[in-house]
Every structure is written in C-alpha cells, then in structure tokens.
Amino acid sequence: MTKPLEKGQIAPLFSLPNQENQVVSLSDFLGKKVLVYFYPKALTPGCTTQACALRDSKSELEKLSVVILGISPDSPKKLANFVEKKALNFTLLSDEDHNVAEQFGVWGEKKFMGKTYDGIHRISFLIDEQGKIEKVFDKFKTGEHHQVVLDYLTSK
Q: Is residue 52 annotated as part of the catalytic site, yes or no?
C-alpha cells in the first residue's frame, strides 16, 4: 500500500458514479467541508455499522457544514441496494477500478483469516473548503467513526 495522503496535502479531484449512476465530483463541494470515507464493501457488518452511525449523525454534521461521501469498490447497483436497505441519507460513490482509492493511498494489501489480498483500508479524510486535507481519521472502531469525526469538529 502506498502511504495514505496526509494533512495539508491537496485532495485529488475525482469524479465517480453514485448509487443512482450519476457522476459526482469532489469539485461540486468546493466551499464546504467534505468527509470522504473509504470502506471495503457495502452490506457487510462493519461497513453497515459505520454507515448507519453516519446516517444517524448526518444532521449534526450538516450543521457543521460537512458533506458525507462514502467510497467503495462496489457497483452503483450494489450501492443503491445498500442505500435502500439501510435508509442511508448521504451519497455513496462507486470506485470499481479502485483508482480513487489508490490516489488517496488507501488501496493495498490486507490480511484476513490467514489470506492476503488487495482491498480498501478503512480510512477517512476531512477535506476543507479549499480542497485541502484537514484531518485523516485512520484509527477508530466502525461504530465510533461518526463520534471521532464529530469530536474533532466540535473541539476546534
């Protein structure tokens, strides 16, 4: 795995299809803070826990002018299913060729149950209004991710 991007670096500009197969670009959100969170796979237990907690804290994040974008290698169709089944209220983006994950440095070797494979590392980036990485969240439990982000935002 290449090293994840760090605080102060400019976030790569990307455009990806969302759960409705419409293209969403990071540049659409200039002037707002954007929480770009990478997760391995829709509808798996950890990813569902993380997504539902973000769903439930979306209004608090919106009050702090933060937009949520979830990115995984899932197809737009699978993302639509995830949104529908879990009543998610934010945008999910499909990075099927993991090109964007590679640009952010979150795609690489993982180990699970004795197997080694390439996949997405669960890391989030808070991007500021000018497109710079303000904070990297890489140490959290899936159920606490939303709280770690909120605690950071409200402690400033």
A: no
